[in-house]
Request: fold
Amino acid sequence: MTSAEALANPYDSRITFTAGMFEWPHYGGIINDSHFTARDRMGRTMAFVARAIKDGRTPGGKAWGVGVEEGSSLLVDRNGRATLYGKEAFVVLGDHQPEQASSGKPLTFSDFKIWRLGPGQSYDFDNRPSCGYYLRSVTNGVADPDLYSGTPQSGCGAPGGTTLTESEPNDSRTTASDATGNPASLSGSMQSAGDRDYYRLTLTSGQKLTVDCGVPTAYDADLYLLDSAGSTLTRSANNGAGTGEAITFARTAAGSGTYYLDLEAYSGSGSTPYTCTLAYT
Reply:
């Protein structure tokens, strides 16, 4: 099935499902495709996702697809964290019923949520991010342009959560924006080529922090987690403007401690906001 064929009729008799192939913890029920960008398979993954929702094949009225580009590998560990080795991969979420999906009719489905993973970037299927995606739709069998790139949505934190917008100046630990209230997401922008945005937060013993940042195409930014003295504990420094960054850190020491998230402009700048989703477990 080509993308055009699948979108023209998501109930074409050639569309079939093979179940149980990747029933790993945190990953079961996900639709998988390969040679994704080279053979333009985003459209057919969208059709399969819509079918899975319409037919009730996945729980909660949602369905997920993963597309991996030719020459790339997505390695999934025992905790459900997937890391890309190679050029790119995509995670596609449909989280509502299709507006139109029936035999012999073209697909209509609004606002697929799409995460693009660049080299070395991770996606946590255990604690799935609620931000960092861009949106694309299909109308009467015709998909939006630019299916394989987009500016991540801003202000799209977890439902019911809060978004903390940076307060300048916050270019040092002493002037860091206060994120100790555990906001669902952070939002700001790299206003100059040397801009640095700091956020102060607190972690308790045994608490794990996962941060996923959607970076707009206007600039390249790197993400660091620092201890209270300013030493780097972990970092994410993927190459390329518009490439997201993600880190995970678990506090093992007793009591609570102060930490700092530092998002730094590596190249480029602009007023288009980045959004970082924070998950505490």
Remarks:
- Residues 135 and 177 are 29 Å apart (CA to CA).
- The mean pLDDT is 90.
- Helices lie at 3-8, 42-54.
